[in-house]
Amino acid sequence: MKYLLLFILILPVSVIGQRNILNAKSPDEIGQKTIDELIISENDSPLAYGYVNERDVLFSMTVWEVIDLDERVNFPLYYPTDTLIVRSDRRPLIHYLLTNALDGNIEIYDRDNLKNPLPLEKLSASLKFKKIKPGTDEGIGLEKINSYGGAKSFLESFDIDLGEFNGIDPNTLPNSKPQDSEELTRGEYESELERLIFENNLLKRNEYSEEVFDYSDVFKYKIKGIWYFDKRQAELKYRPIAIAPVIIDPRSKSKGEEGYIDLFWMFYPDTRQVLFEAEAFNESNTSKPVNFDHMINSRRFSAFIYKEDNVFQDRSLKEYIPENALMQLLESERIKEKIRNKEQDMWSY
């Protein structure tokens, strides 16, 4: 009898684990929104942030946090990394951010200060890395290029216009860039010539190796937000300001290493409509997915504070607690406790 009761309790969860599975007439209809859901969501949008009068803010603090995707509670932001084995409505957070960035739907920036827009060409270039093979004793790759007398002669043999790099003698270029100098280095010059070789498709596929970004290469997310106490609501609140995916650099993958880069930064309010329409997996009830905008605004994730606004030019924890992960973790907890104590002070007399 107890096994029958257990089966009855589990049955509804397993049956309705996917949207519209009970009313589907064909496998193609499984996962699609029902007519009622389409009507409701037609004009649906994320709950707008309320206006906050500066005089009502008793205190505020800006913090930068890292969302480590190795932590189980953060898995809904990371999975699925292989989109071929799941339904079309299940995608990781990076899918929605990157797709809209490449389509130009959401403005992207190179840093968390959101001052300098990041060109799409630079974003596309950071998603893949091509490396010319040595081609030793094979007559391909670098060996073929060197047989022409170098990359410059190789390009000129195909009548490729070098533009601003025409007439530059690489032997006169410095190996490193002096501080506060915009002078071209030899490494940058050679990288630009290599870029022209790939742009003009002068090499065959077997003459170079290529590392391409994959959803599984997302290592963590950085999120910038503000904690503030609103005296009108008598409540401590959190407002996300910017978000950035951190990925394994394809350039480092080609070397067998794991270097990390901030792919781009986005002003979070610009992402809200997209993330509101994007659904994440809900482990508590798979028939009721939760959207990413709700997850982030309600802080349904685990994060580590790596920087707070401070008088020392907003220095990070690593700058004053170097090479000590444990003490950095304790410092992060101290900052969290400081924020909680600020709220507690509001109710103390």
Number of strands: 11
Rg, nearest Å: 26 Å
**Residue share in helices?**
25-40%
Which whole number gives the mean pLDDT?
86
Look at the helices and sheets and give the structural class: alpha+beta
Question: Can you walk through the features of this model?
Answer:
With 349 residues, the protein is of the alpha+beta class. It has two domains: 26-36 and 52-123 and 214-346, no CATH class; 129-212, no CATH class. It has 13 helices and eleven strands. Strands 1, 2, 5, 6, 7, 8 and 11 form a seven-stranded antiparallel beta sheet that branches. Strands 3-4 form a two-stranded antiparallel sheet. A two-stranded antiparallel ribbon has the order 9-10. A hairpin with a 4-residue loop joins strand 5 (218-230) and strand 6. It is globular. The chain starts with a helix and ends with a helix.
Descriptive keywords:
alpha+beta; 349 residues; two-stranded antiparallel ribbon; globular; 11 strands; seven-stranded antiparallel β-sheet; disordered N terminus
Q: What is the topology?
A:
Elements lengths: L1 H14 L19 H7 L15 E12 L6 H4 L14 H10 L5 E2 L10 H7 L1 E5 L8 H7 L3 H7 L28 H14 L8 E5 L5 E13 L4 E14 L1 H4 L6 E3 L2 E3 H10 L1 E2 L9 E2 H6 L6 E5 L8 H4 L4 H22 L3
Antiparallel strand pairs: 1-5, 1-11, 2-8, 3-4, 5-6, 6-7, 6-8, 9-10
